[in-house]
């Protein structure tokens, strides 16, 4: 997996930080097997306060349900309302 970041500006001049993740075919096979990819932001040039978890599912709705099932009662979760059943 390729992980990297860069800082720049949009065409309008707004500062942005771009984070890129390149998944190999082997990564994609693991995701299809239900094996998520987890890594720390420091590996992509970001702060180590960020943790990333990349996973896959049949639909956005099934993935939202899967995530919700593993979240504790004190965790703040924001899911796009369009993805709720």
Topology of this structure?
Layout: E1 2-9, E2 15-22, H1 25-32, E3 37-40, E4 51-54, H2 60-68
Antiparallel strand pairs: 1-2, 3-4
Could you write a compact summary of the structure shown?
The protein has helices at residues 25-32, 60-68; strands at residues 2-9, 15-22, 37-40, 51-54. It has 85 residues and is an alpha+beta fold.
Fold and architecture overview:
The chain has 85 residues and is α+β, with helices and mostly antiparallel strands. The protein has one domain (21-83). The protein contains two helices and four strands. The strands form two sheets. It has a two-stranded antiparallel ribbon.
SS elements, strand count: 4
Q: Write down the overall geometry.
A: globular
Structural class of the helix and strand makeup?
alpha+beta
Fraction of residues in helix = 10-25%
CA-based gyration radius: 15 Å
Count of alpha/pi helices = 2
The percentage of residues in β strands lies in: 25-35%
Low-confidence stretches: none
Nearest-integer average pLDDT: 88
Amino-to-carboxy terminus distance: 32 Å
Quick one: biggest sheet? 2 strands, antiparallel
Strand order of the largest sheet: 1-2
Number of domains: 1
Q: Secondary-structure element order, as H and E?
A: EEHEEH
Keyphrases for this structure?
2 helices, 85 residues, 4 strands, two-stranded antiparallel ribbon, alpha+beta
